[in-house]
């Protein structure tokens, strides 16, 4: 009977949606800025592009028999999270605050009042519905980031259930704490410009929890090193992620303004510096410059600059990318000496990268860049630096413990891990009855 539940739940939601009253959008268009609307529409599309970019990035790094199963887990989140977001997700993140912990689910239940309501308090020049679309794209990619740690051994149906529970019980509270004016982290004075805690640390900690619950792959236990299925996919994925990240960070200025330009530049600069740093650091260790090394390093730089993209100056973003790549590289080396099977190093790259980014925001943030932001330790405000550390002491254990509990709960409902035979066959075939193939052109002389 379990196979009927997802369809039945979606059917109930679809039928219920028929009876939701229609609302006019742009009830008072005079209050909005057309340039800001145009930019945030573009930024939302750019952030969405990161989801297929992530699919290529992860899909290229796994074994050939698991390419499709890895890629679909990133893409399917676009469907799952979108429906949740319209029904209750946006309310939980940005609805009326309940003691600074979570939004009231009834505030915008089935998107009630979003279309015709007043603009979001921090985005007065765009419709609230557009602000919601932009935030939706962040919610979509976050569970997709976890896929890299649990690839090649998790059942597809179990991952779908995890995505639902993670979105409701991890992502939504963190988004509310950090980005709602009444959220307790926001009131505490913690700053996260575009998702260092909400997206990357939460996903990184969930990835660590998932790797521990799912345990090691057979190939990992036996020490078998299997080459990536398609390195050009990784390169394409990196390009799409880098491109989309301009919407991720620059769009978080919520307008076509000077701050969005600054965030755009810090994003690009940190990514470039981090890609070079990872690659050159590998060379110091006796390796050759690699495509994978530059790509992974660039993504780490993008992760690390995310919390401070709108608070730090452009020159300092070079250092942020440089040092974040080295720290993540060292953590990857350490991880490979342990029994932890985080398939694609999600925790060292996203979790550690996000942590480093939050700490460095506490050091390099300056009101010169953003008058509404803080001054960091380098500019005389040690209190803000300590606040960033306090925020990490809340976010890290919360994300890990709740995610660990979710994985355990999913495992009680349905075995979360594929059988040994299914793992040997590959998840493309065992979970989807499909196979990744590449066409080769042959020339007869």
Structural features:
single chain, mainly alpha
Structure, explained:
The chain has 445 residues and is mainly α. It has a single domain (36-215, 227-416), classed as Ammonium transporter fold (Orthogonal Bundle). 65% of the residues lie in helices and 1% in strands. The protein has 16 helices and two strands. The chain has helices at residues 5-18, 34-59, 67-94, 128-150, 156-179, 184-188, 196-214, 218-221, 231-250, 258-284, 291-305, 314-336, 346-364, 382-413, 420-425, 427-432, and strands spanning 97-98, 102-103. The chain has a two-stranded antiparallel sheet with strand order 1-2. Strand 1 (97-98) and strand 2 (102-103) form a beta hairpin. It is globular and about 60 Å long. The N and C termini lie far apart (58 Å). The model is unreliable at 439-445 (pLDDT under 50).
């Amino acid at each position: 009977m379990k196979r009927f539940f997802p369809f039945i739940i979606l059917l109930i939601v679809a039928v219920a949606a028929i009876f939701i009253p229609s609302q006019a959008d742009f009830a008072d268009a005079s209050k909005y800025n057309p340039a800001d609307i145009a930019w945030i529409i573009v930024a939302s599309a750019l952030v969405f592009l990161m989801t297929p970019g992530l699919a290529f990035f992860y899909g290229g790094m796994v074994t050939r028999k698991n390419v499709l199963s890895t890629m679909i887990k990133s893409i399917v989140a676009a469907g799952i999270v979108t429906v949740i977001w319209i029904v209750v997700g946006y309310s939980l993140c940005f609805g009326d605050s309940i003691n600074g912990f979570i939004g009231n689910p009834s505030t915008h239940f089935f998107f009630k009042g979003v279309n015709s309501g007043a603009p979001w308090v921090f985005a007065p020049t765009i419709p609230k519905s557009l602000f919601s679309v932009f935030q939706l794209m962040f919610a979509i990619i976050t569970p997709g980031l976890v896929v890299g740690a649990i690839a090649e051994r998790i059942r597809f149906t179990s991952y779908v259930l995890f995505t639902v529970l993670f979105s409701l019980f991890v992502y939504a509270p963190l988004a509310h704490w950090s980005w709602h004016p009444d959220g307790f982290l926001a009131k505490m004075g913690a700053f996260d410009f575009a998702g260092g805690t909400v997206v990357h640390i939460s996903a990184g900690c969930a990835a660590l929890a998932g790797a521990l619950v799912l345990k090691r792959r057979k190939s990992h236990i036996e020490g078998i090193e299997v080459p990536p299925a398609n390195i050009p996919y990784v390169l394409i994925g990196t390009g799409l992620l880098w491109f989309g990240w301009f919407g991720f960070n620059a769009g978080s200025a919520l307008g076509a303004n000077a701050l969005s330009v600054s965030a755009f530049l810090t994003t690009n600069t940190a990514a470039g510096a981090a890609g070079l740093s990872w690659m050159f650091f590998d060379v110091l260790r006796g390796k050759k410059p690699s495509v994978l090394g530059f790509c992974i390093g660039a993504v780490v730089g993008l992760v690390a600059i995310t919390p401070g993209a709108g608070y730090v100056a452009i020159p300092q973003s070079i250092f942020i990318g440089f040092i974040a790549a080295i720290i993540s590289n060292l953590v990857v080396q350490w991880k490979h000496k342990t029994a932890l099977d985080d398939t694609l190093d999600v925790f060292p790259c996203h979790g550690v990268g996000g942590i480093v980014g939050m700490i460095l925001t506490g050091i390099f943030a300056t009101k010169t860049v953003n008058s509404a932001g803080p001054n960091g330790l380098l500019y005389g405000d040690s209190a803000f630096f300590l606040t960033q550390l306090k925020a990490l002491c809340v976010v890290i254990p919360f994300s890990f413990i709740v995610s660990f509990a979710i994985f355990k709960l999913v495992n009680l409902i349905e075995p979360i891990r594929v059988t040994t035979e299914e793992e040997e066959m590959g998840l493309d075939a065992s979970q989807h009855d499909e196979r990744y193939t590449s066409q080769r052109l042959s020339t007869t002389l």
